[in-house]
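Progress against Task 2.4 (sequence-to-structure conversion) is shown through the following example record, which the project officer requested during the mid-term review.
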Amino acid sequence: MVEGNYPYISGKCGIPLENIGVPFRGNICGGSGRRIFCSIDSDNIVILDATEQKFRLSASVNTESVTVAVRSRDWKNGERHPDLFGKKFVAWALRYFESQGHFIGKFKSEWFQGDDIYSNINYVSYREGIESGLDPIQAAKNTWTGKTVVELGFTEVADLREYSGGRVTLNFQRPS
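Structure tokens generated for the chain above:
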């Protein structure tokens, strides 16, 4: 069982993550009635809508860093998944990994430019920040990921790199 505060209201929304024994791999019913595939072990979490796989939450931990991918909303048309809550998932995943004995010191991010469902709204937000006059660190902190992880204590930005072709990599870190 995983303790935390991931939302679940039967017949409405969310995922009953706190009722799942871990490790776990299989389908469960989300609060909305949608079939949700979950794979949870000590180092990796994958949660996706079994029918509409464009909606997914995933996280993995390696040494002191965590990498998370959140697709709880189709940012092109605004459609939001009723069971997947990105910000709540990030907080829950960090608590879960720490409960498994991992120390999380870094939150790794990689953002891409593009116009398909796998494009990253963080990249768009980052570029808008740069174009409005923010320095790269402030622009990174002003993205959805930046705001989310700063609230969770990852307040420093390190190793920020921009690549040609529309790619940004960086780490959000806890203060030393």
